[in-house]
Each structure stands twice: as structure tokens, then as C-alpha cells.
């Protein structure tokens, strides 16, 4: 078995242990209520416990910020691809810190070219997508803002759908607070999971009006996809 396979097994085992721990507490509570009040109340409690466990476990099953190995520790930087950059730590409204790379064309050029906001796919971190950022920068002559969702890379917090949508709005707020880019040429790019984040942002009545365009790549149409 390869190191990558062992890493996947460890992640799945960790999820299973958390679910088992929660299940054990719920089963103990159900047993005690059964002893005191009878089987009906224990059965109702068990139903609530199981539904709660499944609800809270879904994020662990859907999102994989720890794959591949060391994705929460080692983040490749743009200079490895010959890109100028500034490291940012953006604050969200719920006090999460988002790790980001601001890759901007130098001088006045950066004020007039389009800016692409890059929302990456599931698993890994933004450093694993720097080859794409290099293409946007060199071939398309765009500034690029790359950001890691909450719970990914060096960003704080825990991954969640609601949290990702909040992260996207905070990223756009940050861009509009800057004075070194053209606010009328902001393009949102989302790959896979990032496509869902991009579409939600564009569909917002307030934030959608601030975006020049949206590009989605390899994005699912539903969770089963």
C-alpha cells in the first residue's frame, strides 16, 4: 500500500472514530432513557441522535482539505513559478482568516488589466493550482487573486457550504477596498467546487452586479455528480 493510500485510510479512520464516539454517547443516552421511561422515548432519542450524527458528519465526508498529504502545512508559493505576489490574510465577517495570494502586474499596468479571482476545487490548497495562475498572468495578462477556503491550507475555520459562500463575499469586499486594480474588470473563476462558490456569488443581487464575468470549469450540477 502506497503512502497516499495510507493517508486516505487514516483520514477515513479519523472520520469513523468521530462518528463512533458520537454514536456511543447517543446509544448510552438512549439506553438510560429506556431504563427510566421505556422503549418509546429511547427510540425517539435514537432517531434524533442518528439524524444529528449524519448531518454533522456530512462536511467531513464531502470536503478533503488534508489531501494530498501535508496540504494544510505546505503551500507552494507563486515565486516558484516566477510570479510576483503578496501574501494576504483576509478577515471574514465571522472572524475567519483566509490565506490568499495577490498576484498583480507591476506598476500602472496592474491598474488597467482584468483581475481574476480564483476559487479552487476540492482537496489540496491554492498552491497546487499555481500553474493555472501562471497562465492567467502571462498568457491572458491578468492580475490573479487566489484564496483558500476556510479549513483549507493555512486558512482558519472548518469547511462548510455556508462558510464558503461567506468567504467568497469577503474576498470581493477586499478587492473593492483596494485601489491598485480596475474594479470594473473583476472576473470570477471557479473550478469544480469553486464553480459552485462562483455561481452563488454571481447570483447574489448585490455582489453579482459588481462582477464583469464568471467562468466555471469542471463544475458539478448536483452532489451525486
TrEMBL record:
Listed Gene3D superfamilies: alpha/beta hydrolase
Domain AB hydrolase-1: 114-219
Stored InterPro entries: AB_hydrolase_1 (IPR000073), AB_hydrolase_fold (IPR029058)
Entry GO CC: membrane
Listed Pfam families: Abhydrolase_1
SUPFAM superfamilies per record: alpha/beta-Hydrolases
GO molecular function, one term: palmitoyl-(protein) hydrolase activity
PANTHER family assigned: ALPHA/BETA HYDROLASE DOMAIN-CONTAINING PROTEIN, PROTEIN ABHD13
Annotated protein name in UniProt: Protein ABHD13
Species in which this protein is naturally found: Anopheles maculatus
Amino acid at each position: 500500500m502506497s503512502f497516499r493510500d495510507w493517508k486516505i485510510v487514516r483520514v477515513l479512520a479519523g472520520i469513523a472514530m468521530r462518528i463512533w464516539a458520537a454514536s456511543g454517547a447517543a446509544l448510552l443516552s438512549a439506553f438510560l432513557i429506556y431504563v427510566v421511561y421505556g422503549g418509546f422515548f429511547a427510540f425517539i432519542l435514537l432517531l434524533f441522535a442518528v439524524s444529528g450524527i449524519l448531518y454533522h458528519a456530512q462536511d467531513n465526508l464531502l470536503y478533503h482539505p488534508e489531501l494530498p498529504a501535508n496540504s494544510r502545512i505546505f503551500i507552494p508559493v507563486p515565486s516558484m513559478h516566477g510570479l510576483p505576489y503578496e501574501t494576504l490574510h483576509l478577515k471574514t465577517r465571522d472572524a475567519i482568516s483566509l490565506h490568499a495570494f495577490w498576484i498583480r502586474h507591476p506598476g500602472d499596468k496592474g491598474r488597467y488589466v482584468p483581475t481574476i479571482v480564483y476559487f479552487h476545487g476540492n482537496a489540496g490548497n491554492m498552491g497546487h493550482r499555481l500553474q493555472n495562475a501562471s497562465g492567467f498572468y502571462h498568457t491572458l495578462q491578468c492580475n490573479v487573486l487566489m484564496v483558500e477556503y476556510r479549513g483549507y491550507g493555512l486558512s482558519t475555520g472548518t469547511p462548510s457550504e455556508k462558510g464558503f459562500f461567506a468567504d467568497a463575499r469577503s474576498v470581493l469586499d477586499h478587492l473593492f477596498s483596494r485601489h491598485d486594480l480596475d474594479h470594473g474588470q473583476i472576473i470570477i473563476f471557479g473550478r469544480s467546487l469553486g464553480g459552485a462558490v462562483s455561481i452563488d456569488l454571481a447570483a447574489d443581487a448585490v455582489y453579482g452586479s459588481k462582477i464583469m464575468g464568471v467562468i466555471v470549469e469542471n463544475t458539478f450540477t448536483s452532489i451525486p455528480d
